[in-house]
Specification:
The structure holds two protein chains of two kinds. Chain A is of the alpha/beta class. Chain A has two domains: 21-111 and 215-248, D-Maltodextrin-Binding Protein, domain 2, CATH 3.40.190.10; 112-213, Periplasmic binding protein-like II (D-Maltodextrin-Binding Protein, domain 2, 3-Layer(aba) Sandwich). Helices cover 42% and strands 22% of the residues of chain A. Chain A contains nine helices and nine strands. Chain A has helices spanning 2-31, 46-59, 72-80, 93-98, 147-158, 172-180, 191-196, 227-238, 240-248, and strands at 35-42, 63-70, 87-89, 107-119, 139-142, 167-169, 186-190, 201-205, 213-220. Chain A starts with a helix and ends in a 9-residue tail after the last helix. Chain B is mainly α. Helix content of chain B is 78%, strand content 0%. Chain B has helices at 3-15, 19-42, 48-53, 55-88, 94-106, 109-120, 127-134, 142-167, 171-178, 183-194, 196-211, 215-220, 231-238, 243-263, 265-268. In chain B, helix 4 crosses helix 11 (196-211). The longest helix of chain B is centred in the N-terminal third of the chain and has 34 residues, at 55-88. Chain B is globular, with a radius of gyration of 22 Å. Chain B starts with a helix and ends with a helix. The chains are: A alpha/beta, B mainly alpha.
């Protein structure tokens, strides 16, 4: 009995030390060797931002960037609820507006166009937006709160098309997945998602006059304790090197206004 | 055991509670209860009725009821015979079958959803055949949502029922048999009534799990209001633009979970 209590005390003590040790490590990284900043970014930025993150660390060895990719609307809610974000990159101004009081001045750093995504070889012969209203197609869109879903809705409304989607996905990458698995015949995503989607999917262009241009704003989060590093990342994304990376992933420069 | 004896034993157990355990135990209770308190505290009580009566919420509620009850029906139809075989028949590979049956309980539901797609999706193992032979495709349909819920919830019914069958006194069945009852009559008139409490508990657990299903459903069946958007999916999406609605829906799910717990309390905490 006594022995087992001692053993338990030792285990608890070890756990406490371990916890203290972890805390200590955090402090060390915060103060000296490497600072970690958390960037919340729209799902459509996944590939480009992963590359930007490693490029940024190469240029700033003392700062490590970790990402939280999800639908912009979900990220905005997380920021509102006090998630520890240092910077936020959204796929639309609407999600950025939701957190306007919590972030610094947003800057548009890229734009993107919509494309219809279909299975490899386009077996259903989709030629443009009007085909999506066909009854024999299973169409998947983003939910109306998801930027890609909202943009798709705008594009379809402008053509007075009524599309009955079989599912409204929570982020744009989920639309790509449903098409690449062959469960859905077509979806509306960004041009960049089609090129990042692999061999099992291909894109059908939407003519410029029917297309909707998505704009991507980025801002630092006011509650961040790493303001200068977060600002450095924002500047990096907007700078020449960042713009080149974004371009290589198919993003367009910010609209000139 | 008499009441006094039980009380005395409880008293000694209380006296022996090791101090070393009290602090972590209190922390554990706080940790488990705090989120529920947060939910209740943030509930817009005054607007609760309006939030719950909103058409999208009602649609999700109705769909959740249909899907979860459908999942329980499938589980009863297939799971009870399976539990019977597992409990009573010594067939080769029985342990393997039991392990396979309980796997969905420990499998991450999203993985379950992916697996369901690869099996019953349009290009899945069985899905290709279903599509070709009957023109049936399950993803994005209410049937698909029911299937996803049954996949994760059926094990709860199977293991609870099997445990009930193992624990029951088989002499009643023997007596029925000696009195001339056939095999079916015995199962119907003796076995099933005797395991009714286990069956009920299993069905309640199965229903609660089906009602709360999220990962497998959104992965396999997608998300469309009225067709596959069940309550947990509605909660998740409402969180992003309509927090009061999300909280109201969460409260309904919490109330259901509590109700199931209360119904099952005598079974899980028989001495309390």
């Amino acid at each position: 009995m006594v022995r087992s209590r001692i053993r338990l005390a030792v285990v608890l003590l070890a756990l406490a030390l371990l916890a203290a040790g972890c805390g200590g490590n955090d402090d060390a990284s915060g103060a000296g060797s490497q600072t970690e900043i958390k960037v919340f970014a729209a799902a459509s930025l996944t590939a480009a931002f992963n590359k930007l993150g490693s490029d940024f660390t190469a240029a700033h060895p003392d700062t490590k960037v970790t990402f939280n990719f999800a639908g912009s609307q979900a990220l905005a809610t997380q920021v509102q609820q006090g998630a520890p974000a240092d910077a936020f990159a959204s796929a639309d101004t609407r999600s950025m507006d939701k957190v306007a009081s919590l972030v610094g001045a947003p800057r548009v750093f890229a734009s993107n166009l919509l494309q219809i995504i279909v299975s490899e070889g386009n077996p259903k012969g989709v030629k443009g937006l009007p085909d999506l209203a066909r009854g024999d197609l299973k169409v998947v869109l983003g939910a109306p709160d998801v930027p890609a879903g909202k943009y798709a809705e705008q594009a379809l409304d402008a053509q007075h098309l009524t599309v009955k989607p079989v599912s409204l996905e929570d982020n744009v990458k989920a639309v790509v997945t449903k098409v690449s698995l062959g469960e859905a015949d077509a979806g509306i995503v960004y041009v960049t998602d089609v090129s990042a989607g692999g061999d099992k999917v291909e894109g059908v262009d939407i003519p410029t006059d029917q297309n909707v241009r998505a704009t991507y704003p980025i801002a630092t989060v006011k509650a961040s304790t790493h303001q200068s590093q977060a600002q450095a990342f924002v500047d990096f994304v907007r700078g020449d090197q960042g713009q080149q990376v974004l371009e290589s992933y198919g993003f367009l420069p910010p609209p000139t206004s | 055991m008499t009441g006094t004896a039980r009380r005395r034993r409880a008293a000694t157990a209380r006296a022996r509670a090791p101090i070393l355990f009290v602090v972590p135990a209190v922390l554990a209770v706080g940790f488990l209860a705090m989120p529920l308190l947060g939910l209740v505290e943030q509930t817009p009580w005054r607007h609760l009725a309006t939030a719950l009566a909103a058409p999208p919420v009602l649609v999700a509620l109705r769909l959740s009821l249909v899907c979860s009850l459908g999942a329980v029906a499938i589980s009863l139809l297939l799971g009870v015979p399976l539990a019977f075989l597992l409990a009573r028949v010594d067939f080769p590979g029985r342990n393997l079958v039991r392990a396979l049956t309980t796997l969905p309980m420990v499998l991450p539901p999203v993985v379950g959803g992916v697996a369901l797609l690869l099996a019953f999706g349009r290009r899945g193992l069985a899905g290709v055949w279903l599509d070709r032979a009957f023109g049936i495709t399950l993803p994005f349909t209410t049937a698909g949502a029911i299937l996803a819920e049954a996949f994760v919830a059926m094990p709860f019914l199977v293991i609870t029922t099997e445990a009930g069958l193992r624990a029951m006194d088989r002499r009643f069945e023997d007596a029925a048999a000696t009195l001339g009852a056939g095999r079916w009559t015995t199962i119907r008139r003796v076995t099933l009534p005797l395991i009714a409490p286990s069956l009920g508990a299993g069905a309640a657990l199965c229903w609660a799990r089906a009602l709360g299903e999220f990962g497998a459903t959104i992965t396999f069946a997608g998300n469309l209001p009225g067709t596959t958007q069940t309550m947990p999916l509605a909660v998740y999406l409402a969180l992003e633009n309509d927090l009061p609605a999300a909280i109201a829906l969460s409260l309904v799910l919490l109330a259901v979970s509590l109700a199931v717990l209360i119904v099952l309390r005598d079974r899980w905490f028989p001495t309390a």
